[in-house]
Amino acid sequence: MSALTTAPSLGWQARQPIRRGEHQGHTSGLAPGLVQGNLMILPQALAADFLLFCQRNPKSCPLLAVSEPGDPFLPTLGQDIDIRSDVPSYRVWRDGMLVHQPSDLTALWQDDFVTFVLGCSFSFEQALIEAGIPLRHVQQGRNVAMYRTNVPTQSAGPFAGPMVVSMRPMTPADAIRAVQVTSRFAQVHGAPVHLGRPDLIGIADLAQPDFGDPVDIGPDEIPVFWACGVTPQSVAMATRPPLCITHSPGCMLVTDWLNHQLATG
Amino acid sequence: MSALTTAPSLGWQARQPIRRGEHQGHTSGLAPGLVQGNLMILPQALAADFLLFCQRNPKSCPLLAVSEPGDPFLPTLGQDIDIRSDVPSYRVWRDGMLVHQPSDLTALWQDDFVTFVLGCSFSFEQALIEAGIPLRHVQQGRNVAMYRTNVPTQSAGPFAGPMVVSMRPMTPADAIRAVQVTSRFAQVHGAPVHLGRPDLIGIADLAQPDFGDPVDIGPDEIPVFWACGVTPQSVAMATRPPLCITHSPGCMLVTDWLNHQLATG
C-alpha cells in the first residue's frame, strides 16, 4: 500500500476494506454519490483494438480511464487506486472461459496488462432517482434486466457483436424526463438508445432477460433501453482472448469522482 | 401604417403584403427561420384569467407577448407590428360561435382588447428538420394531426378543459433525439408530453384526429405527442366569451424573432 501524502478522499476510505480483502461483495450503495466503474483488463496485444472498439461504441463503452501497459495505478480516477487490489472480486477468463474468481490480482499481474475502466449506470440511476423517477429494479431489490439485441456494434479488430441493453420500465412522461436527465451523462451511457418497442431491436420477451433479473412492468409503462456496460464484456469474451480479467458482476471499482461531476449542460 | 425609423427587418418585409391584404393565406414557409405565433384577442374582463391559465399551462400556452389593453402594437415581437392588420386572416367569435373571417381588424378594434401571442410548433419543427428528423406531415404535405386528450389542464377562472396534443410519428431513436432537441425550445411547447401509448391519454384511434389531418405511421415508428397551441383556443371557446378573436388556422403572426434565438442549453 502506498503512503498517502494528502488527506484521504471519500473514495480512498471506501476502497480500504476492499483492498484489505474485508469487503468482497457488491458495491451497490457502498459509497453514495461516487462514480463506480466497470473493469476490463486485457493483454497489450489486444488493447489497441479494444480501445478502438470503445471509441467506435461510446454509448456501450464510455471510457473513464485507460492505464499504461503494466501500470496498476489509475491516478486520474482517484487517490492511490491500485487496480490489483481495489476491486472486491475479479473474474479471470482464459480463452473466454471463467477459470478463477479471486479478490486480489497481485499474484497474477503481468507487465503487459492494460486496464480499462468504463462508466456504469449507477451514476445516471442516481440522477434519475434524484429527479423523482422511480426505478423498478431498485424498488424490487433486483438486478437490472439486460438483453442481447439485434443492434450491431461497430467492430474493431476481433471485437464485434450485438449491443447489450439494460431496461427500466417507466411511464411515458417519466421516459421523456429520463431522456432529458440521462442526456447530461454521456460518460455513463448517456441517453436511452431505444424505447417503447422491444420487438424492433430483437427482444422477443421482456420477461426473459439474458442477464440480470426480470422486473414487473406496469400497465401504464413502457420499456426504456440504455446501452449497457455488459456489451464490451460480451464482445470481448466472444473473441476468446487468451487472458482477460473483469470485475465480478456488481463488484465495481469505486472511484473518487462524484456522479454530479459527470453532468453536462 | 407607422413610419419606420430604422432599416426594415426581415419580419417587417414579410408582414407588408399581409398588412396590405395581398396575402390572406397560410404562413407556413413564408419567412423561413422566423418565429410565428398563435393569436388570441380577448376583452380585458377575461384577460387576467386567461393570463393565469397560460401561466399554469406553459407547455400548451407558451406566451411570447401580451399587449396593454387597447394597444394594437407588440413592439417586443417585431418592428412596427400592428395586430389589427398584420395577420393574414382572423376569426371573430361571438359567444363561442364563428361569425366572421376578416383579413383586417381595424373596424372591429375595441379599447379593451388584450392581445396574446403564443409560441407555435413551427419553431421546434425547424429544429427537428435541421437535426435530420423527418416530419411525416411535412413529407405528406398535410396539416399535423391533433387530438383531444383526457389530460386535464390546470384551470383558471372560467378557463378549463382537456389538453390538445399534436402527434408526429418517428422511430424510437428519432423520438429520443426529438426529446433532446425540443427540450431546448421551452417557449414553443418544449419537450413532448407523451409518447408510445396513445391509449394512456385517451386517444382511441390515431387515424381519426380531432383537428388537422391523419398521417401514415410506419411499422417501426411510435407516436410522439406535444402540447398543442390549439389547447388555449379550445379552452377559450368552451367558455363562450362574448367576443374573442383568433388567427385563422395556419395564418399566423410572423414576428422578427429567429427560431434559433429560442433555443436554450
UniProtKB/TrEMBL annotation, chains A, B:
NCBIfam families: PRK05463.1. This is Putative hydro-lyase PSQ39_12770. Keywords: Lyase. InterPro entries: D-Glu_cyclase (IPR009906), Putative_hydro-lyase (IPR038021), UPF0317 (IPR016938). Its EC number is 4.2.1.-. It is an enzyme of class 4 (lyase). Pfam families: D-Glu_cyclase. Belongs to the D-glutamate cyclase family. SUPFAM superfamilies: PSTPO5379-like. The lineage of its organism: Bacteria, Pseudomonadati, Pseudomonadota, Betaproteobacteria, Burkholderiales.
